[in-house]
Amino acid sequence: MKETPVNKIMENTLEKMREMVDVSTIIGDPIQTGDTTLIPVSKVTYGFTGGGTDLPSKQNAELFGGGGGGGISITPVAFIVIQNGKVRMMQINNYSSSADRAIAMIPELVDQISQLVKSKESAEDTEE
User: Fold this and answer.
1) Distance between CA 114 and CA 51 in Å, rounded?
2) CA 101, CA 66: separation in Å to the nearest integer?
């Protein structure tokens, strides 16, 4: 593919966005507070655009016009909590629908059911 000024604009725009968004942007550095470790989790959305022309004309053999741009949105969505050997996810409540709210409740529901089953098994063991 021929190297043109438009190609350079697109490559530079994409390269700058790659520099801004990496794994540590999505899964943040762990934060230690006492016996609890918090790991932030974010949602990253980005897009870019570019365009231009490099058509020569009679007046100027090197005619060029172009531009590029992009945008990034970083939204915190949850924390991974490690405490006393247990790992759980605490979501930040940013629900846009009832379905989002229901999906977010699943991990907590599973934890509660697991605790209920364990306590029932413990009660049965003590009865025997």
Assistant:
1) 55
2) 44
